[in-house]
């Protein structure tokens, strides 16, 4: 793991969503010392201008790696007052590991969980195989599910008779995995989120491919809201892969205000 270091922080933020940067910046203004974990050098770029104590670069794969970060902070007398999980709602492995390790070590832990959006009449599916319950024969379906889920969603949509297209993110991993999937090379578009945040490019793709419906994840945030609004405005269907419920019993918060309140309560204990 590549490390950019100044000194040990008080709060450890594991990031993987847009809220990571926003929360880190706000917590710094609150007077906290912050360390941030990101999965890649590219993901660390937005944090470079923040006065962070440390940036950990690289995916935390094992429980041993997570335990090592926490124990190392304690050894150097800079233990974390709290570990804050800001990873993606569908990144279940890291949340499972970090919550388990924190419990074992008696380390205060908070999970931030995005609020669930209910702003359209989207079809909620438990798993991609549920697509077989809908009439997709000869329909053009756009997948916006993340590259890790692309092949699985592709198989079930195609088996339901759909003509399948995909929108993938402009990063090396996404492009590599998309090219190794079974989707036609002419049926996917690579987009830069910062360049398409207003939805103009997504709308153009829907028109170009005569899309009848979109499949995305119930992940919350700007991306899901974009698809809700676009599908409503264009009169096409939206299928949402239901958010994992494995962590519904974890003591979580769904706003920055609640996060601050919880942190302060932990410090006062």
Q: What does this protein structure show overall?
A:
The structure is a single chain. This protein has 269 residues and is of the alpha/beta class. Helices cover 37% and strands 22% of the residues. The protein has nine helices and 13 strands. Strand 2 (11-15), helix 1 (19-29) and strand 3 (34-38) form a beta-alpha-beta unit. Helix 5 (147-159) runs parallel beside helix 6 (172-180). The radius of gyration is 20 Å and the shape is elongated. The model is unreliable at 1-9 (pLDDT under 50).
Provide the β-strand percentage band: 15-25%
Radius of gyration: 20 Å
Number of domains: 2
Q: What is the number of strand segments?
A: 13
Instruction: Give the helix proportion (percent range).
Output: 25-40%
> What is the CATH superfamily label of the largest domain?
NAD(P)-binding Rossmann-like Domain
CATH fold type of the largest domain: Rossmann fold
In the CATH hierarchy, the architecture of the largest domain is 3-Layer(aba) Sandwich
**Topology as a string of helices (H) and strands (E):** EEHEHEHEHEEEHEHEHEHEEH
CATH class group of the largest domain: Alpha Beta
Cα end-to-end separation: 33 Å
Q: Could you give the order of strands across the largest sheet?
A: 1-4-3-2-5-6-13
Oligomer: single chain
Mean pLDDT comes to 88
Number of helices: 9
Tertiary shape: elongated
Largest β-sheet summary: 7 strands, mixed
| Low-confidence sequence ranges | 1-9
């Amino acid at each position: 793991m590549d490390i950019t270091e100044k000194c040990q922080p008080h709060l450890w933020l594991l990031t993987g969503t847009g809220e990571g940067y926003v929360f880190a910046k706000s917590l710094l203004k609150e007077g906290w010392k912050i360390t941030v974990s990101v999965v890649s050098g590219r993901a660390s770029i937005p944090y470079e201008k923040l006065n962070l104590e440390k940036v950990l670069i690289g995916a935390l794969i094992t429980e041993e790696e997570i335990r090592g970060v926490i124990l190392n902070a304690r050894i150097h007398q800079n233990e974390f007052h709290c570990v804050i999980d800001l990873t993606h709602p569908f990144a279940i492995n890291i949340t499972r590991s970090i919550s388990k390790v924190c419990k074992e070590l008696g380390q205060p832990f908070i999970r931030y969980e995005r609020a669930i959006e209910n702003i359209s009449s989207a079809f909620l599916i438990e798993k991609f195989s549920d697509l077989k319950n809908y009439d997709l024969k000869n329909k053009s379906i756009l997948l916006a599910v993340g590259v890790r889920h692309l092949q699985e969603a592709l198989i079930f949509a195609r088996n339901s008779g759909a003509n399948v297209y995909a929108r993938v993110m402009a990063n090396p991993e996404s492009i590599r995995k998309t090219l190794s999937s079974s989707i036609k090379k002419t049926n996917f578009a690579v987009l830069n989120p910062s360049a398409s945040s207003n939805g103009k490019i997504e709308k153009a793709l829907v028109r170009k491919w005569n899309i009848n419906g979109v499949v995305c994840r119930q992940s919350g945030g700007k991306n899901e809201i974009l698809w809700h609004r676009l599908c409503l405005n264009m009169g096409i269907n939206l299928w949402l892969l239901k958010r994992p419920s494995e962590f519904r019993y974890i003591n979580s918060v769904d706003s920055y205000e609640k996060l601050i309140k919880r942190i302060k309560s932990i410090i006062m204990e």
